Request: fold
Amino acid sequence: MLLGAKKNKSGNKPDLTDKTNFKSIHEDFEDTNISDFLFNPNEILPEEQILISIQGKKILTVGNTAVIAGKPKSRKSVVVHSIIASILSNKNILGIDAELQKNERVILIDTEQNKQDLKKSLLRVAMLAELDFLDEKKFLCYTTRQLDPERTLLLIEKLASDNKNRLILVDGALDLINNMNDVVEVKAIIQRVKTVLEKNNCALVFVIHLSKSTNFTIGHFGSFFDRFSQSVLEITRLENGNSEVKAQNMRSDDHFEAFEFYWNYNINNYSLSWADTNTTFYKNYRNYSDEEHEQLLKKCFSSNEFLQEKQLINMIAKTYKKTEPTAKKIIEYLTTEIKLLEKENKGYKIIEPVVF
Reply:
């Protein structure tokens, strides 16, 4: 409900034709301290936490939303499941890198499927991640097929208030609204989402249908979420049976190269298109062999035997095709675990292998 707004006779939504509503809003705002909304450009902000990336491009960070859009049967849910599988396995799944920190959780809210179909789809997550079971400490799934939009929104707000729940994916976002073309209702929902993000340390992903006739996300609901979100990924079922993933809108980074995945009957699982494997599939850095790490480090240090920390972060991010926060983790891994790097003063150098 909008601040100070009265319900109309049907009791479903605010009546903005009533001038007393605006008077009430004005009176409520008079007691507001405007300094609460002042932004200090000199404030040192905490480093942003990147949750989802593709080809080293930033898709979603904490405090933002992303949209996965596509027509029916385009395999939007497979992309959702790939995000979850990447988090649980710490691997790149179908071209997607997703990562949470220790003790953080990913939440799936399914608004459409019955329990039998939902169970089958969660088996797909385990298959993609190559896991025997889904760890409830890292992943929880809620089915809200029986709930009306208001109760589903309340559930999201409740889940977001738990600081362990860092990423919430809503598969079936149209079930959050009664009328997707009601601008007032859409704006009210957007405002609630903004409030959730402002109050809690989380990020939200919404799956929204594309219109069959216009190829835009459906209704005012879709268009408003597109403009609000950090990234919009479009999933398209191609004539050859593959599904294409491309960036429709990227606010925080450059567009990644579109790529395809398909159902691979040889392995009874989804695979990246063979043509996209080399350009799209970036392994998790822990899955590289020592020899692969050594080759990549030689590229980083090709011009200098010693690199300052900031220089090395930039070179690792560029060479490994990862984001800067991940580059820092790679440096820590190379220094403390497999000991290919040595920290010296305020920089790093390669540890030369011992020859026997």
Remarks:
- The first strand starts at residue 50 and ends at 54.
- The chain is about 35% helix and 20% strand.
- Residues 1-7, 277-281 have pLDDT under 50 and may be disordered.
- The chain has three domains: 1-31, 50-280, 285-350.
